Amino acid sequence: MALHLGMITTDSTDPLPLARWWALALGGEVVAENDGWFVVVMTSSGALAFQRVDAVTPGKNRVHLDLVVDGDLDAEHERLVGVGARSLGERSEGAARWFTLTDPQGNEFCVAPEDHTA
Q: What InterPro entries does the annotation carry (predicted)?
């Protein structure tokens, strides 16, 4: 028996527009809407789900996505901001460089170059 990751699920008071945003951002597709209470997005990297809750847990999210881009990091940052992400700034450590952003509902995620040192 082997354990594997099925999907990453995010709580939301309005999951359908958030799922559509992530589908756009990742080039994925909304594959299940379930009347808007549990929405599934399939991407080339796997599945994301967004489930309706009455109230999201306040404060910084404890789990976030680290995404990689195989092209121009600055161009991808601008594309994501252009489709509704909010930039929290550029970060670096040594030669590594990345951006921290939030999706339209305030969930943080990071985007780095695929080689993580560009």
A: Glyas_Bleomycin-R_OHBP_Dase, Glyoxalase_6, VOC_core
The predicted-structure confidence for 5-61, as pLDDT tens digits, reads as follows 889 999 999 999 999 999 999 999 999 999 999 999 999 999 999 999 999 888 888
CA distance 65 to 109: 5
CATH fold label, 64-118: 2,3-Dihydroxybiphenyl 1,2-Dioxygenase; domain 1 (3.10.180)
Query: Do 27 and 18 contact (CB within 8 A), yes or no?
Result: no
Whether residue 86 contacts residue 102, with contact meaning beta carbons closer than 8 Å, is answered with yes
Which one-letter amino acid corresponds to residue 78?
E
Its CATH architecture, for the domain 7-53, is 2-Layer Sandwich (3.30)
Helix residue ranges, H only, 1-118 = 15-26, 73-82
pLDDT digits (tens, 9 = 90+) for 49-73: 999 999 988 888 878 999 999 999 9
State which H helix or E strand residue 69 sits in: strand 65-69
Distance CA 116, CA 113 (A): 5
